[in-house]
Prior knowledge:
Layout: E1 9-16, H1 23-36, E2 40-45, H2 64-74, E3 81-83, H3 96-107, E4 111-118, H4 119-122, E5 139-144, H5 150-160, E6 165-167, E7 172-174, E8 182-186, H6 194-202, H7 213-222
Parallel strand pairs: 1-2, 1-4, 2-3, 4-5, 5-8
Antiparallel strand pairs: 6-7, 7-8
Helix pairs in contact: 2-7
Amino acid sequence: MVQAAKKIQKIGLLGGTFDPVHNGHLAVANHAMQDLVLDAVWFIPASLPPHKAGHGDGREITGFTHRIAMLERAISHYPSFVVSDIEAQRPAPSYSIDTINILLQRIGEQVDLYFIIGADAFLEIDTWKRFRELPDLVNFVIISRPGFPPGKVEAVMRRAFAGYEYEPLTETWSSAHGRGSFILQHMEPVPISSTKIRERVRGGKDISGLVPPAVEDYIKKQKLYVK
């Protein structure tokens, strides 16, 4: 009897500081999940991001335990969303190449990983550790916004990932030599940022509608961002 082949799971990876997680993060995850028909999206908070030792306002990044707790509350109504604490289990700083390799070791290779990244962040990918190895491990989902110059992404592709061919119909770069593709996605920007949320909390202003209610309650109870 021939066994049926196991279905390859399509898993999105959304990394970030998530200080705090907000409705914009959830919107990006939902957008990628629906457009690419993903089986799950994993939120991976960075323990200590290599490009962000602290926030631009001079304040330290909130403790990892608090950020995990807020994420767990934010996704509680989304059965296909998962929070991973893998970054806390490894020495800092958090490099994507190391995290992805460990994930693949743990969950096996019967998965297709989709690394979700904003177009602005993608412009700096050639500063990342061992960035040219990443397409052998993941597909990239580059989230663009209206008005973002498409030539900027193309310039990065030519500079950092020479040899990838662009397919205009699907807005995808692919290569016969690499496992992964680069998929350009478009979505309306959600005018929310973690920085603005922290500023509003410090100023005693309302943040309802910017974060899920359970996250707002947690921030209030734990007195986060008030100083």
